[in-house]
């Protein structure tokens, strides 16, 4: 997959350098960030290399050469075309600076001073609308891992997140939560502009490059990416099974991630088919009593599918006994990763702490 190039152009040398470095360090698997402090250096760079996205800050708006390129991409009605374009031009706007330039309303604008992760989500939201769709070849090495607990163990999501962290040490991992009332916003103190339902809609309706659609929503946690769970989670049971399957195939084939982890909640439509697309599945037993009967019930359902391949993919796990208090407090994720659960997960997948 070709890496996307993003040029940060701003006369504030410290700002431009820090944002460019952050893009490369945090998104280096799929994005290359460049920093420019003068229009001359940027225009010289353009002569030899293509730039997919240009973030224009102060000191660059007034340059005649840059203005000519931007205005050439804007049709006569003054609005950026929604047809595919080679370069997406975006204004980095600081309200404190007042009116930035006379053609400011001709290109998309992003608030300049906000977390870099927020800037990137807005960038990809715009790329999803304007950037040319680039078909990607299916990578045979990509894997889907499904995680489910028929008895709804409280440790299912901690296990899934800890697994994502462990695997992210060597692979690019995307975590997808399909549980109802996941509560991520309150737990992580995050405000989500887009969630899983938005991403599914964009991908399934062909509203742009699949990778851009996903990146317009993803957040980062302990080294891996995750799509915010659905807010209106009642809709999870109303989506057709074939749409779930098509969405999963698109993510596998065109997202650029090495591993996709599906954290199932209820049995959404197409549940068994989605399990069939997984390279492996982990089923958490959760103990005795009703949990045990729930597990046996699931095994019966799997057997009825008549697929030996599916049965062989599933591993039934009994997690080590852990105190429920480990789920409480400000640093839950760190407790899971570096506690008993983390030790168990790393041993399960053969990941050594601190290895290359």
How would you characterize this protein structure?
This protein folds into 2 domains: 4-130, Rossmann fold (3-Layer(aba) Sandwich); 143-349, 3-Layer(aba) Sandwich (Rossmann fold). The chain is built from 14 helices and 12 strands. It has helices at 13-27, 39-46, 64-72, 116-130, 156-167, 184-188, 196-204, 210-215, 241-254, 271-277, 290-304, 308-313, 332-338, 340-349; strands at residues 4-9, 31-36, 53-56, 88-93, 109-111, 143-148, 173-178, 219-221, 224-227, 259-264, 280-284, 314-317. The strands form 2 sheets. A 7-stranded mixed sheet has the order 8-9-7-10-6-11-12, sandwiched between helices. A 5-stranded parallel sheet has the order 2-1-3-4-5. The longest helix has 15 residues, at 13-27.
Helix content: 25-40%
Flag low-confidence runs: 76-84, 135-140
Instruction: Write down the secondary-structure element order.
Output: EHEHEHEEHEHEHHHEEHEHEHHEHH
Describe the main β-sheet briefly: 7 strands, mixed
Termini separation comes to 23 Å
The total strand number stands at 12
Number of helices: 14
Strand order of the largest sheet: 8-9-7-10-6-11-12
Query: Structural class given helices, strands, pairing?
Result: alpha/beta
Q: Number of folding domains?
A: 2
The CATH C-level name of the largest domain is Alpha Beta
CATH superfamily of the largest domain: P-loop containing nucleotide triphosphate hydrolases
The overall pLDDT, averaged over residues, is 84
* Percent of sequence in beta strands: 15-25%
Query: What CATH architecture of the largest domain do you see?
Result: 3-Layer(aba) Sandwich
Question: Radius of gyration over alpha carbons?
Answer: 23 Å
Query: What overall form do the CA principal axes indicate?
Result: elongated
Q: Would you give the CATH topology of the largest domain?
A: Rossmann fold
């Amino acid at each position: 997959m070709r890496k996307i190039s993003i040029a940060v152009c701003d006369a504030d040398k410290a700002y431009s350098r820090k944002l460019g470095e952050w893009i490369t360090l945090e998104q280096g698997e799929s994005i290359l960030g460049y920093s420019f402090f003068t229009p001359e250096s940027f225009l010289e760079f353009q002569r030899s290399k293509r730039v997919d996205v240009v973030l224009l800050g102060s000191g660059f708006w007034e340059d005649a050469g840059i203005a000519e390129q931007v205005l050439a991409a804007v049709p006569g009605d003054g609005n950026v075309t929604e047809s595919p374009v080679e370069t997406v031009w975006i204004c980095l706007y600081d309200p404190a600076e007042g009116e930035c330039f006379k053609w400011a309303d001709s290109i998309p604008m992003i608030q300049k001073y906000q977390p870099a992760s927020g800037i990137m989500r807005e960038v990809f939201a715009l790329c999803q609308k304007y950037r040319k769709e680039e078909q990607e070849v299916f990578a045979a090495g990509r894997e889907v891992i499904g995680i489910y607990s028929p008895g709804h163990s409280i440790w299912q999501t901690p296990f899934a997140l800890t697994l994502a962290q462990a695997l992210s040490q060597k692979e690019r991992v995307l975590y997808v939560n399909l549980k109802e009332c996941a509560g991520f916003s309150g737990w992580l103190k995050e405000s989500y502009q887009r969630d899983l339902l938005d991403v599914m809609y964009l991908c399934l309706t062909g509203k742009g490059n699949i990778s851009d659609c996903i990146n317009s929503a993803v957040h980062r946690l302990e080294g891996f990416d995750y799509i915010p769970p659905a807010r209106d989670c009642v809709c999870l049971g109303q989506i057709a099974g074939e749409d779930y399957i098509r969405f999963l195939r698109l993510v596998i084939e065109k997202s650029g991630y090495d591993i996709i982890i599906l954290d199932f909640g209820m049995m959404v439509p197409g549940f068994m088919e989605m399990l069939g697309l997984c390279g492996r599945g982990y089923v958490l037993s959760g103990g005795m009593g009703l949990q045990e009967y729930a597990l046996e019930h699931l095994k019966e359902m799997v057997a009825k599918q008549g697929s030996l391949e599916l049965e062989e993919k599933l591993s039934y796990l009994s997690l080590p006994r852990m105190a429920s208090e480990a789920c409480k407090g400000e640093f839950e994720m760190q407790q899971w990763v570096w506690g008993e659960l983390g030790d168990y997960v790393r041993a399960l997948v053969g990941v050594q702490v601190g290895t290359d």
